[in-house]
## 1
Amino acid sequence: MIIKRRSTMLYRDQNIILGCMRIADKPIEEVKDLIQTALDLGINFFDHANIYGQGKSEKVFAKAIDELGIDRSSIIIQSKCGIDAKTGTYNFSKTHIIEETTKILERLNTDYIDILLLHRPDALMDFREVNEAFHYLFDKGMVKAFGLSNQSSTQMEMMQKYIDFPLRFNQVQFSLMHSQLIDAGLQYNMGTFHSQDFLLEYARTNQIQLQAWSPFFSGFFEDIFIDNPKFPEVNEKLDELALKYDVSKEAISVAWILRHPVNFQVVVGTTRSDRLKKIAQAKHIQLSHQDWYDLYKASGKILP
Amino acid sequence: MIIKRRSTMLYRDQNIILGCMRIADKPIEEVKDLIQTALDLGINFFDHANIYGQGKSEKVFAKAIDELGIDRSSIIIQSKCGIDAKTGTYNFSKTHIIEETTKILERLNTDYIDILLLHRPDALMDFREVNEAFHYLFDKGMVKAFGLSNQSSTQMEMMQKYIDFPLRFNQVQFSLMHSQLIDAGLQYNMGTFHSQDFLLEYARTNQIQLQAWSPFFSGFFEDIFIDNPKFPEVNEKLDELALKYDVSKEAISVAWILRHPVNFQVVVGTTRSDRLKKIAQAKHIQLSHQDWYDLYKASGKILP
Amino acid sequence: MIIKRRSTMLYRDQNIILGCMRIADKPIEEVKDLIQTALDLGINFFDHANIYGQGKSEKVFAKAIDELGIDRSSIIIQSKCGIDAKTGTYNFSKTHIIEETTKILERLNTDYIDILLLHRPDALMDFREVNEAFHYLFDKGMVKAFGLSNQSSTQMEMMQKYIDFPLRFNQVQFSLMHSQLIDAGLQYNMGTFHSQDFLLEYARTNQIQLQAWSPFFSGFFEDIFIDNPKFPEVNEKLDELALKYDVSKEAISVAWILRHPVNFQVVVGTTRSDRLKKIAQAKHIQLSHQDWYDLYKASGKILP
């Protein structure tokens, strides 16, 4: 209980996170360039998961950090476990969480990670096992803070009731075109649109730090929408706003997410430093209220 | 906090509200007749919004009230802002709320409105701005009470957490044929029907006063169902019950809403005094339990 | 209030309940054999409803219990009212609840039932009437505990707020193939699957005892899935696991429900003692984490 009340760093100043999912097979020099570029841009929050590149992403990252001579304490490292790729299940057992986190630290070549997220909810989770795993990892200094991913507000409430540590992070898919979490509020009670819960409102009410994964996807692991001829209207508006704000279309797309007062942290998964620079332009602009709504409507949604 | 606990008048005795959306272009004599008829029927609650007739509805209403010599304190006036028709956005900024409410009072030619509803949720709302606007309007005596419209229970909870005033009103679309808010409870867990939340249950649990707009619409801004050949079954049942209760079919349709123990206030938007009289017959009947269910089923829904 | 805090027996050791819906027209000897078999298997929890066989199921059950000479105190009897078959409505009026429960006791030839469930939610329910009915039935010793059926978490919360007795039971349809209550959590925010609420999570958070009806149905009152050629994949996996655990496919299907940590009680409605024996094998096995997920996926759902 004392632990639960302990405040958790939310790193609110870090609104862009470098997602390291796809660096596994990149040449080390490219990865070093990417990381150095991120740091130069003020991005020092890095997102991993034990399954990215089957663990190789974390290894490559560690090598790059080492070769760049970056001080561990100057960066924030987040990783995830809970999806068991070998068995095709979600697994929140004590053994699995501890073993996987131990391997994460080995691969990352670090004594601790700042945040451990449980990747997707194990329907069979035993709260005592999760709790014991977290106590173990926290007491050993292996994990500084815990969070969730791809979970609804009710699932968050359930876990928080039984887990002794604050669960203040939730990483969910969210983009201009995969925006059900916003649509739920704007298109309420119309009889056409249905959503599972109101996570954005819940997060604002309960000080949950949301993170948005796949900010450029048009749907659940579907095509990127930027410069995609399937989506002419949204691209036309993105072009217009890119010109207006003098930034890239990627930056506009991220700025659209950042403009929401829930204060998302956006996980960007590019492996190219030039693209990262273009995306990071989002940090320096704020879309106007009008532009935010125009972009929302251009993405194919209606305002009733 | 002291303010938040202050009790709010809910005007529970006023179960029919005259909606003034469509009076903008009516001759003043017709509007006067309509208002006088409402008052004669015991209806002294009037619903407006800044966007109805682009403001003209409020002006015409004020003129009629003035010419009729009606005492301001004898009627309840509600209006709404938050939909910015000019920009096609929803806007809960402090400036917008204060400016629009100021214009509402000017057009209505009154010192205050009894209730101000925020029309549709601005996804980008800043609670401090809403709160400051409300304090300003309340302290100046311009608004007596505040409420919401077209918002889910989670959205209501979020706003109530941050706003210092009670938010006890929520005006949502609801009719015999746009009845998802009831269907949600009756058709739970069937795998076919899906709803966003359980607003009726939330309202009963938390003493929220719901208001039903478009009580005769068959869907979101779709055809009126009464005497509509597209809906023979419900009209047959309405005919039967109109005969049985010796009232109009409109009255039966409204009585169906009023019969629900959540105690809706029904906003009726007719501009014809003869039709208003027919509708207001609903105040004097109570559908039997059996008739309520039969009508629900005749409207095309099943009971599992 | 004192009453509300009184603890309610949840009979957690009884994870299989014999559902008596279809015994109405069975020969008394068959019913006696069925009940004796249940007791021999450690199943002494029996589920009824006033509408099963139009009351005849309860009568046949009472006759069998009497002829078998079974001590009333050695068994748990649950029944339900609230669906008014005569009028085709749901009815939670005080009169209806008391009258129907009185008739239930007469038919069951017993002084009390252990649990009374309200069968489906009456949209028009008046909490005072329900409360008064419950006080009457409790004070007369006619009902030991109360619960609900086919209700969402929000509906449960609403009723619990106004009813003086703990409402800790909720009987809902749930099976390997009618599994929206699990899908909701596993397929959150994908834009494809939608659910009304998160009842399993709510139940775990609030110590609600869920009961699963129709554990072999493929949908809302749709075909049984076991040995159904329409569902080859799930049957193939059931065959495999039946072999592995050396039990029937029915037992595997029930074990799949029992494996969930919400700790369902499964209502099985077979009228054949041989089939009951096969089903009850579920009590003696526990599916592995892997098998549970494999079966879930074989039933046609995806893990994102």
## 2
Amino acid sequence: MYKLLICNSTLSDKLFDPGCLHTSFGIRKEKKDHYTNVPRNANLEKLPKGYLFPEISLRQHQHLEQHPDASLISLGIGDTTEPVPDIVTSRMADFASGLSTLEGYRGYGAEQGNKELRKAIAETFYKDVNVKDSEVFVSDGAQCDIARLQLLLGSRVTAAVQDPSFPGYIDTSVIIGQAGDLDHETGRYHRLEYMKCGPENKFFPDLRRTSSTDVIFFCSPNNPTGHAATRQQLEQLVKFAKDNGSIIVFDSAYATYISDDSPRSIFEIPGAKEVAVEISSFSKFAGFTGVRLGWTVVPSELCFSNGFPVIHDFNRVVCTCFNGASNIAQAGGLACLSSEGFEGVRTRVNYYKENAEILLDALASLNIKAYGGQNAPYVWVHFPGMNSWEVFDMILEKANIITVPGCGFGPGGEEFLRISAFGHRESILEAARRLKALFS
Amino acid sequence: MYKLLICNSTLSDKLFDPGCLHTSFGIRKEKKDHYTNVPRNANLEKLPKGYLFPEISLRQHQHLEQHPDASLISLGIGDTTEPVPDIVTSRMADFASGLSTLEGYRGYGAEQGNKELRKAIAETFYKDVNVKDSEVFVSDGAQCDIARLQLLLGSRVTAAVQDPSFPGYIDTSVIIGQAGDLDHETGRYHRLEYMKCGPENKFFPDLRRTSSTDVIFFCSPNNPTGHAATRQQLEQLVKFAKDNGSIIVFDSAYATYISDDSPRSIFEIPGAKEVAVEISSFSKFAGFTGVRLGWTVVPSELCFSNGFPVIHDFNRVVCTCFNGASNIAQAGGLACLSSEGFEGVRTRVNYYKENAEILLDALASLNIKAYGGQNAPYVWVHFPGMNSWEVFDMILEKANIITVPGCGFGPGGEEFLRISAFGHRESILEAARRLKALFS
């Protein structure tokens, strides 16, 4: 789907970037000649100083300083590693080459995206649920559209998030001014509703004990837990939203990883078009993490309390704050949705799913309880009673494997680690061997 | 730089797009089965219903219905028309092709942009003013970075805009909540400071009569007036900002169109690094309107009133709300900054400048007073005492030329038309002939 904050794929680059160093590891204040009179945005002050991934980078960096010859395997960041099918890249290359010809040159496209691509998205992913191409907004990635959705919603709405969850929902809520203050003791923002999702509730919140909010961020298959919500769970969620008048922001960026009959879209649930938008992405589906392409569906049925259609305001935000995804990336996206392209990208998805199986098998052989991995490229590993940073450190120290401590995804992630299944096969096999050696 | 709102380059597509039709030409409300309880964002309610470009599209559409054989020339939207140099497109094509190989595959890049590209931007555009690559943030275009800057600044700051100006500054101020209510009589938002810029003040505001604000949006060379601020004017602006503790958001997206000795960057003015950020773009410089690439410079010297460096918060916003520009576009941007690439894109800039000269010559021969065009791809034409929509309609009706009525850029644009110099040479020559026939 999208990356977690900062300092991930180009760790070493960022570690030596002063801009990043300062932000991540404490600000060095020097008295300047001139300060402006502009107050710092109080919302940005509410974000905690240290974020997850810079902290991981720092520990990785320290580890490499102590062990310069360590052969690290990075299963931390969820970044794709396998090449994109030829048919997709050659379509992008052809489009790019065409820009140097009079016939092939293209300037501004529609902010909402190329109509042909919107049609292909509607037909490929929403054929049976009647999403129209006019309801599809092509984006440069799901993370960017979360921010634009926050601009749409504004500071006055209340929001609920799964706990644990991808930090982007919470951080953008904080930046737009919805979240209130951080309670440093609980690690929770006062105005946000945290919906605990763990093995004890089949990774689905107890809705009878969930406060009603204007917005509900819900990710399935979930990052980080790897859980794909069942049809029954999503039916409950849609009913809950309808009863309370909420809008669900449904994140389906990992939907193509679903193997069982879990819904691939919230719109498979009857009535969902009146209560939900869906954000999604080519990143993990087609290896487009660097190419940047995604989409959001805003059904025309979805209305604010005054009856005004949400789609019109989202269109206005997209037209004012965005200028469309790169036309080269859009040409690639269209190629991914051709039958040959789709076949090609499916093989990559299956490759990562086999990786996940290798990791799950290794953990099962060690009697370590792990979740996810069946319908998602993430394995969510339980270390009962343990601090997730301690487990992270131990695995880094003893097995030279980078993972992500679960507490980085919210207080509900404590005692867990997220292990990413993105990687070349040999790295995954080697990681499995090392885990077995460490824990057996 | 960037496009004006909506419905521009793909007029016909959008005209028949129900999503756009509804938004642009009045909402058709039908009672739905279910409204959510989520209030519509009050900021979005403050934006006027009809925007400039949909209105232009509508009039164009009506004109074509009445005159189906009319040979329209579009000098409305500022969209590039000339192909991109081979060296740039082949670099993008090679990068795209490489993504299908193990060696060439790239996943997530740094959110702030490829370091090599940041270096090249710093060296090409800011060599003599000591901007470091760590202060350059690569973006997917200036319009997108304006929105991210608004997320950085938040709703509590006060802002000033040039009048007339590109609508993006005002519209994003409204969306984030800075602007207050629209006074329908004056066409101005209550909380915004409008800095009138016209021939009477050499297109530079009378700063003695300008209220102090936290933020000052300033575009030079200006869209729509085509005026490049002189060194003396910018020195005044920087002093004004420093005296008042303001931050200047300087938009230099048309800087490569400057022919005379006007500053190409606000950072040419001593002390500007303590009071300004600069947004810019490859769009009009390299014909990347559809490829999507730009940058923003946030100097490390620039601080909020509490001494906190603005660059750290901008970094946080970029990392949370953006995931980097497309890596293919970034490869193209780097090629533009090679010596051969730069030479190539310069020839396109010069081509559009010759177009502007043709238009200026035609208007001069008619004794119609026109401004701009020397340092910018826009000609700003004065029709004293006339309503700019009436002039627009007359030129559309009688010469089949689409322009932009100046009032669309703010009340200060009344009596003016903006004519874009982007277009193939034969269209520009034909437009000049038609204008001569119409007005002589």
